[in-house]
Structures are given as structure tokens and as C-alpha cells.
């Protein structure tokens, strides 16, 4: 299994240099040019490590890290910054960062920091990522975007699959609305909130063949996918 890294850097020249170097080291790299784009990409596939510039448009690195920590508490996050002030470093760690690299930095130092972070979380590259999950009597294929029950298959849109994947990850727990909105749309304003309600209604319809599955609206908080524990 190839290690996948999410890189968020608004300086395209630096972003391409870092991306090319990491790719030559054998990593698979996704480059986002702002924090909002990075959060959406994070929700689209599995990553093993994040490298975030601090000063970015639309959503800065610290805010991005806080949003990601609501979804994944374990993934290592490395901050890149031009600032050396202690207050900024403290803010970085408070927002969920694991390490800090001040610009300008050498390629060798970046390589060593990434290796150290991956070693810290003990990533086993020999274990394949699961693509199909059981949801009650259904099978949810996250790669082919479909739900199957009793020989019947329902194709999902990309956003439907992203929302269901988040709900499944936090099954039998309340998932706040803003977490879903930020992860799927990159924002949590009124209009995308109404879109989320439409998608939730569709997902309830898709899951209705199994009476044991409940997708509840927790008023003022979020949603809860209730699935029997086998």
C-alpha cells in the first residue's frame, strides 16, 4: 500500500517542488491550494499524513487542522510556516498539529520529519484499505459508490457516498452537522445546510429496506446513523 499524503500549500511553485520531491520518495501526493479544497479532498479518500501551510486563503492551516481533528483524531499533521514566533507554534499544536517546520527548510529535513511522524503512528503499509463495509443488511461499496441488499444495487452520487461514509465512520454516535458540511462542501452556510438535508432524506430512502437501520436527525446538533452491532 502506497503512503498517501495530503499537501495544502497556496504557493504553487513551492507546492509543486514539495509534491515532486515526495513523489520521487515513493509517496502518493494530493496538492490542494487552499484550506477549503484540502478539507474536501481529505473526505474524498484515505490519507496517512497531512502537510499544511499555515497561511492560506479561504481556510488557514490551523482552522483546517481543527476541522480535520473532528473527523480523524489520529492522522499526523505537519505544519509549514514562515513564522518562528512561539505563540504561533503553540497555536499550531493546540489546533491538532503534531510537528512544525519553519520556512525555508531543506528537503532532507522535510523527509526526516515525515518519516518520524509515520513511524510514530506505526503505519503498516501491508494492510490493504477496506473498500466495502456492512451497514446492517446492506453492503456499502465506497470505491464503486453503491449500496447492495438482496441482490439489488443502488448507485450513489459522490456526495451521497461521502456523507454515508462519514455517518458510517461515526455510526451509533451523533455526528455534528458542521462536521459533515465542512468535510463534504468545505463550508457550513445556510444554503449547503439545506442541501445536506436533501441528501439525508435520500439516504434514508436508500436504507429503508432494513428496518433495523435508523438515520435520525438530532435537532440542533446533527445526525445519528443507528446500526445494530453484531
Annotation keywords:
230 residues, alpha/beta, Rossmann fold, 2 domains, five-stranded parallel β-sheet, 12 strands, 23% strand
Describe the structure.
The chain is an alpha/beta fold and 230 residues long. The protein is built from 8 helices and 12 strands. It folds into 2 domains: 4-120, Response regulator (Rossmann fold); 132-226, Arc Repressor Mutant, subunit A (Orthogonal Bundle), CATH 1.10.10. The chain has a 5-stranded parallel sheet, sandwiched between helices. It has a 4-stranded antiparallel sheet with strand order 6-7-8-9, with no helix packed on it. It has a 3-stranded antiparallel sheet with strand order 10-12-11. The chain is elongated and about 55 Å long. It starts with a strand and ends with a strand. The mean pLDDT is 87.
Write the SSE topology.
Blueprint: E1 4-8, H1 12-24, E2 28-32, H2 35-44, E3 49-53, H3 61-71, E4 77-81, H4 86-94, E5 99-102, H5 107-120, E6 132-135, E7 138-141, E8 146-149, E9 152-155, H6 158-169, E10 174-176, H7 177-184, H8 190-206, E11 214-218, E12 222-226
Parallel strand pairs: 1-2, 1-3, 3-4, 4-5
Antiparallel strand pairs: 6-7, 7-8, 8-9, 10-12, 11-12
Strand arrangement, largest sheet? Answer: 2-1-3-4-5
**Biggest beta sheet summary:** 5 strands, parallel
Shape: elongated
CATH superfamily of the largest domain: Response regulator
Question: How much helix, percentage-wise, in residues?
Answer: 40-55%
CATH class of the largest domain: Alpha Beta
Number of helices: 8
Amino acid at each position: 500500500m502506497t503512503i498517501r499524503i495530503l499537501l495544502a500549500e497556496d504557493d504553487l511553485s513551492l507546492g509543486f517542488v514539495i509534491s515532486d520531491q515526495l513523489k520521487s520518495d515513493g509517496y502518493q501526493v494530493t496538492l490542494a491550494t487552499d484550506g477549503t479544497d484540502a478539507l474536501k479532498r481529505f473526505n474524498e479518500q484515505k490519507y496517512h499524513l497531512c502537510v499544511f501551510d499555515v497561511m492560506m486563503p479561504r481556510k488557514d492551516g490551523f482552522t483546517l487542522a481543527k476541522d480535520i481533528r473532528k473527523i480523524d483524531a489520529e492522522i499526523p499533521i505537519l505544519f509549514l510556516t514562515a513564522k518562528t514566533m512561539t505563540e504561533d507554534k503553540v497555536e499550531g499544536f493546540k489546533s491538532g498539529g503534531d510537528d512544525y517546520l519553519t520556512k525555508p527548510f531543506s528537503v532532507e529535513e522535510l523527509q526526516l520529519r515525515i518519516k518520524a511522524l509515520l513511524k510514530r503512528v506505526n503505519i503498516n503499509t501491508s494492510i490493504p484499505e477496506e473498500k466495502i463495509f456492512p451497514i446492517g443488511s446492506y453492503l456499502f461499496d465506497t470505491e464503486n459508490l453503491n449500496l447492495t441488499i438482496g441482490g439489488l444495487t443502488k448507485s450513489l452520487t459522490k456526495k451521497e457516498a461521502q456523507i454515508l461514509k462519514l455517518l458510517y465512520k461515526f455510526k451509533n454516535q451523533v455526528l455534528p452537522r458542521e462536521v459533515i458540511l465542512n468535510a463534504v462542501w468545505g463550508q457550513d452556510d445556510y444554503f449547503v445546510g439545506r442541501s445536506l438535508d436533501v441528501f439525508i432524506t435520500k439516504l434514508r430512502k436508500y436504507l429503508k429496506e432494513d428496518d433495523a437501520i435508523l438515520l435520525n436527525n438530532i435537532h440542533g446538533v446533527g445526525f445519528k446513523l443507528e446500526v445494530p452491532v453484531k
